[in-house]
């Protein structure tokens, strides 16, 4: 999907990417065809230089698997991941190691992702040793100090000998950011990087990430379940549902002119601190279906208030461009865009 971006601006281009996990549990392994969990099922998007691209959705929608595919912590089942035009989806050996130097991941839980027996110095220096960067120990210490200061842990020398348990949650996440930065990556995947932090320190970490994007022009894939966080962080965003992108576009366009019923429901569920605000809340029914047993047609139809029998429960809507760079996967996207009435209907029982 080109999104009208000039080729040289595109850092990551994902095309029809799929990740199916084969189930090997219980009776499934004895009978019939293998059973797959379609965690990511044919998604395409670009991320350009210096851009924060938000990936939003409920847990189980495939957003974390997408991040793990882009960092090649998972091997894709099909599709391509072009990094500066070169397909890295099936890289192995030295090629994969070189790619991993350029692409770093920041995880949700900084306590889990930091080795409790490593000091801050050892934690941030480890990637330099793995990739053979820095001629001497002193040179590497200098790089660690620079990365800690970039992550606003100042004076850095005060943190070098501390262990993770001696740091606050926010400081631990800043160490994780410094560890990602020390390699001067060309792309960062941040998977729910603020969701485990206290609200009071979230803004500081989010602002730090935006400052670093400004300073170094590093593009991010920013994964979150929280559409308000995605709005604050992202230039563009994609909404995922059960392994597919259902809506994608400029962040303001998605927030203010969203067309997909699932995006409407996500946005209408965000609390507004104004007692007089009338929400027009879009209710969706039931729970997210199992990715092992996906509904036919549009995956959202069992929960969608607009689902039409004989269409939505039969035919999977493709992701189509409704206007410049705004993509929607819904049979009624053009009607919604034109402001035409689509009556809420009951469809066949899910
Ligand atoms: Fe709802 Fe049908 Fe659109 Fe799917 S295609 S989101 S079921 S109206």
Beta-strand content estimate = 15-25%
Q: Could you tell me the CATH topology label of the largest domain.
A: Rossmann fold
Alpha plus pi helix count:
11
Radius of gyration: 22 Å
CATH top level assignment of the largest domain: Alpha Beta
Number of domains: 2
Task: Please outline the major beta sheet.
Answer: 8 strands, mixed
User: Could you say which small molecules are bound to this protein?
Assistant: iron/sulfur cluster
Principal-axes geometry comes out as globular
Counted beta strands: 12
Secondary structure: helix percent: 25-40%
Strand order of the largest sheet: 6-7-8-3-9-10-12-11
- Helix/strand/pairing class, anyone? alpha/beta
| Mean model confidence by pLDDT | 89
Which CATH-level-2 architecture of the largest domain? 3-Layer(aba) Sandwich
Give the low-confidence spans.
none
Order of helices and strands: EEEHEEHEHHHHEHEHEEHHEEH
Between the first and last Cα atoms, what is the distance in angstroms?
32 Å
């Amino acid at each position: 999907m080109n999104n009208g971006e000039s080729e040289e601006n595109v850092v990551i281009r994902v095309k029809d990417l799929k990740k199916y996990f084969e189930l090997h549990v219980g009776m499934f392994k004895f009978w019939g065809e293998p059973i797959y969990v379609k965690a990511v099922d044919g998604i395409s998007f670009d991320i350009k230089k210096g851009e924060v691209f938000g990936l939003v959705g409920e847990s189980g929608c495939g957003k974390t698997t997408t991040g793990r595919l882009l960092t090649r912590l998972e091997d894709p089942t099909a599709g391509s991941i072009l990094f500066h035009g070169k397909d890295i989806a099936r890289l192995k050996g030295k090629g994969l190691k070189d790619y991993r130097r350029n692409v770093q991941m920041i995880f949700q839980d900084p306590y889990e992702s930091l080795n409790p027996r490593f000091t801050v110095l050892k934690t941030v220096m480890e990637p330099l040793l793995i990739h053979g960067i820095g001629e001497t120990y002193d040179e590497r210490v200098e790089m660690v100090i620079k990365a800690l200061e970039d992550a606003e842990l100042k004076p850095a020398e005060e943190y070098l000998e501390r262990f993770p348990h001696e740091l606050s949650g926010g400081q631990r996440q800043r160490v994780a950011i410094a560890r990602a930065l020390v390699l001067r990556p060309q792309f960062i995947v941040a998977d729910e990087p603020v969701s485990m932090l206290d609200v009071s320190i979230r803004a500081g970490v989010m602002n730090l990430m935006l400052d670093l994007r400004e300073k170094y022009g590093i593009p991010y894939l920013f994964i979150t379940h929280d559409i308000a966080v995605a709005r604050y962080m992202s230039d563009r965003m994609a909404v995922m549902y059960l392994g597919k992108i259902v809506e994608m576009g400029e962040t303001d366009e998605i927030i203010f002119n969203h067309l997909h019923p699932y995006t409407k429901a996500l946005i209408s569920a965000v609390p507004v601190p104004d007692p007089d605000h009338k929400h027009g809340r879009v209710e969706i029914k039931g729970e997210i279906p199992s990715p092992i047993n996906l509904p036919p047609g549009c995956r959202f139809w069992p929960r969608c208030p607009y689902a039409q029998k004989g269409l939505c429960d039969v035919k999977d809507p493709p992701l189509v461009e409704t206007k410049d760079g705004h993509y929607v996967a819904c049979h009624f996207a053009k009607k919604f865009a034109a402001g035409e009435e689509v009556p809420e209907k009951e469809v066949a029982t899910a």
